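re: that complex we talked abt at group meeting.

here r the seqs, copy pasted straight from the sheet so there may be weird spacing, ignore it
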Amino acid sequence: MQRGVLAGVVVLLAGSAAGLGGPGARIGGPGVEGADGPVETFEIARSGRGQSIGMWRVGSPGPDALGRGPDERPAILIVAGLDGRHDFGTRLALSLVDRLVTDQAQWLDRYTIYIVPDLNPDNDALFDRGDIPRADFGRAPHSADADHDGRVDEDGAEDLNGDGMITMMRVKNPAPGTGLRPALVMDPDEARTLRAPDAAKGEIAEYALLVEGVDNDGDGRYNEDGFAGAAGAGVDLDKNFPSLWPEFKDGAGRYALSEAETRGLVEWMLGRDNIVCVVCYGTADNILNAPATGQYAPDEREPTGIEEGDKAVYDKVREAFKEVTKQNEAPKGEWAGSFTQFAYAQFGVWSFATPAWVRPDQIKPDDAPAADDGGGGPGAGERGDRAGGGGRPDPQAERRALQERGVPGFVIDFILATPEERAATMEEFNTLEPGEQAARMQAVAALPEDIQLRMRALISGQPDPGAGGGGGAGAAGGAGDGNGEGQPERPGGGAPVGGGPGGGPGGGPPAGARGGRFGGRGARGGPGGPTGGGGGQASAAPAGDEAKWIKYSDEHLDGKGFVAWTSVPHPQLGEVEVGGLVPGIRHEPPESEWTRVVDEQAAFLGKLLGMMPDLTVEVRGVERVAPGVWRVRVRGTNPGGLPTRAAIGAKARRLAPIVVSLGVGVDEILVGRRNESWDVLGGQGAYEEVEWLVRAPDGSAIPVEVRSTVFGNRTLTIELKEGE
Amino acid sequence: MRKPLICLTLATGAAAFVAPSLAQEHIPGLVEIAFNRYYTYEELGAHLQAIARAYPEIVTLEQIGYSGLGKPLYVATVNNPKTGPDTSKPGMWIDGNVHGNEVQAAEAVLYSLWYLTKAYGRNEDLTELVDNSAFYFVVSQNPDGRDFWFEEANDSSSSRSNQRPVDSDRDGLVDEDPDDDLDGDGSITMMWIEDPDGRWERDETDPRVFRRVGEEETGGWTLLGQEGLDNDGDGRTNEDGPGGDDMNRNWPTDWKPDYVQGGAGEFPLSNPETRAIAEYILTKPNIMAGQSYHNTGGMILRGPGASYLESVYPREDLAVYDEIGRTGEDILPYYTYMIIYQDLYTVHGGFINWLAEGLGAFSFTNEMWSAGKYFQRDIESPEDERMWLFRDRLQFGQVFKEYEWFDHPEHGRVLIGGLNKWSSRVTPTFMLEEECHRNFAFTMYHADQMARLEWGPIEIERVGEADLWQVTVEVKNTRLMPSRSGIQARSGIGRDDLLVCEPAAGRVAMSGSVRQRRDKSFSEVRFEPGRVRLARGVPGKGSYLHRFFIEGAQGTGVRLGYFAERAKDIETEFVLEARGREEAGGAE
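got the structure back, here u go
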């Protein structure tokens, strides 16, 4: 960590935030940094393109009554700007620097708040430079050959209608040869949106939906490898952290912490063992959407939600948050590889995430009935990159998802196999020993119901009902179902559309057997077919909550949050319509709301600070048992509202417990160990004691050293005289 | 960071060197290295430099970074630039000694580099292999752990980690309670104390032997554990020694934090050694095979490291693993082909798991040395007497420290002694060369299975009277491995293979893959029909058939290329004229 870059960092960050349409980086404050004040700035890392990533430390300078400096007091860490689309988080975090000093000054002698307002300055710069139209693209723009075709960043999105934005394009009944197949219909309830057709009502798909742009490299896929509006290119910093890192997921990076930004943050954090709690301002929420307890990765140790022992803390924080913000709904997240997941399951502290601002209908004024949670809900769809290019089916992800549910390998192989492979497997099955056959059938009977359904359908040669859209329906799988990852259909046995045909010669499946990112799997030993050969790409799936955002735009933004569909000639697709939600609308509150949101979050932080754990240590009894032999007792009390460490912190063993060490020779201790420790002191005045029987002359004094990375070190003295 | 220490200065034709050699003839080399002894890391470095100086036409020695204690990390590349740059050929990675105490692993790597370089130009098979492949050698991933094992008192299993200070017992103090070589013999052995209630007895005829007594019996001795003191006075002995990260748990694929698996490190690639190596490997997308040497137990291990990753390996990849692994059992007597999670233990974030599952390269870990090799017979676990025969009569007692009394500050009179660090995991020096050679031979067989592509017959037919030509091409692979592994295809690792067809005039109107030459059904490539992407490449010991419909005048020349990251590219040309089936005349 370097000092002395204060001015540079402030200018850089203020500049980048200001460039995104706001009048300044901060809301309602000029900045409070100054010599000897409670705020100091540091550079903790440099971005991939060499920009400074700053950290604001808010806490009284100099040693406190216990001799602790700001880095030795219990601390909260605030991180924002992981996703470039959530620029509001950056602005909010910077504003909180000021607010902490003006509104929450009473805590600054006891606790420290670290604020990293912008982890992804390269994303800001990408749009600031104006090289790229405004787009729904929040990743770090670090190059990779996203579509594995040997060309890098060659097919980004284009602003076809010249409005300075990348929105969507819809294609009605795409012409043959475009590789597109209609998967959606106009939603009769909101004609500006599309949804999956309802086969039961006889609806027939008419539209394909894509991110605005042309197929620059002529490979039949649109915007699949370039920055702006499309998934595929760049690194999603919030998928690049080590805990449950989703290795092959689009945007996850070459390895966990492969990016300078994420690694820099983590390396800095690992040296800050006084952090007890993390708040992340970003695109998703885990405060209202309470994390599950008792759910673990396949290693059975690493939680995918939270430990049972931390539930009470999350409940308490949620109540405080709701009281302040009145929010009753917020977008859910995908946490594998996220900062929030890392901070909890590996760093070992309570870890909260919130967008801070939500749509007005997601706020419940007092006791009003909850907002309608219609089709799809906020779901992961809000986070999902909506480009069709990113929505190709990902067999590896599906495989891992099935593995995580405990589905046996042979079942997964079967589900993900080509029809030919399946046929071969079924033939093999018939040749197995009866005992082995029975064992396998038992294993199948023990599967979850939906998997059994899939197995049955596949065995009888029908399309996979779990694969999102079968051959017959032709509906876009995943459309509006809230999974929002833009999961396109897999072509069934019908015409080859969507991804490429399956395997090729040598016993591979016929065309159209199974589309997908990398073609189908050839049969045993046979070569695969060409990749993406049979067609372009399937349609993007609407996120499911478009109508609500359109309504919000109509009611609160004079309709300016939506670009009306207008006809535009497309060099490859003929006439298309361009329109849709304005990029950023989901994440960027109107300016009139800024102050309210900052007020709320400052108040929420105040509540969190009011709950912080603390430690007092005292000598609780000195008793002469015999001449020169003493029983001594030391008590540690936590007067704060939260325990001294999270249940995950104790489990993760990353931080040392509070160690109490008696300063005499081992031989002088008759009963007890020299180093005793307290794993955790519950909040609200809960205490623990340690006791020793020690040999020492009357009237002497014994020092007791208390060591804690969170609460600092201190030394007490035990005076050995009767009648304390 | 990377700087070539030795630059290529000579460009001598390899073929000129090739001279017929008899099967058992000694191949003289320009560098003499004895393989009946072990080397410090500095000595290994000197050998690497000597080899690089002696064979500049095929060896490049690079320094890719530093260990935690500042020792240089080397990669030695063997490649013949006259047959193309290293990344134009399928690459094999060979390393060892990520665990500091598993020392013979480094000698195995050094031997491989040494033998391969001296055989180049003298042995036809190995010359041909070098001309068609690239090899990357790292003698030791863990120089600090290696040297610590040699220089300091250790037992056969200690100094596994690197030397990064870790507070192993979480008491806020770092490395404060290591083992202590109380008797000053350079090894950490055992401490025994006389104890009427003890559960061990000492053999009456051979006082070197302690045996556990039966359930209800007492034997007079208690094992206190390994030689040491409670240096920090916390009531525990030897609980926080130097180091703590197991670098073979520090790789990105399926990495898990320390509380799931001790020694994992703070995050994937958190160590300077693992990071430098990973960054280097990521610059070599041609690496298709990997071998990492360890000790001990005589195993040829493949992934996965955890049961829940079993299905990551597709059937077609497993067929390749099985074939190579079983052949390895023949090349390496007393070695068994096994699966890490199933036959050893669960490993998260292991090195070859990253190579195999993260990068899709066919990779093994060999655990060198096994008890069976003592006696050259199949013996599961030899009984004491036979072991002592070996130690006494073949090793002349050099692996045992006689028991001696010691006045221990905490326990009083204790007996210290026993088998020393050389006793059980390290190949006895007189058997080292053979074990290195067999392992080297196994890796050469492994490398020889990397994809080798050639053109099959090209069939050209005119379609009707028009200037439209139907051209059926075939790409053959004569080796076991596909040009892209099943894991690569499934997970989307690396660039797809490309089959490119470029007429000098006219265009590729349509194309698609076909199953058989006479097959009219065809898996069409709708876009860019002249630039076909193949995620699965060409299968091992198989071929890929593709049909192009080309619009062009008779006599038009057409260039055809197959481009693969993990196989040598092949290119050829043909002319649009009806001639039926014809062997390709193209050159590689």
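couple things i noticed - The domain at 616-719 of chain A is CATH 2.60.40.10 (Immunoglobulin-like). Residues 309 and 647 of chain A are 5 Å apart (CA to CA).
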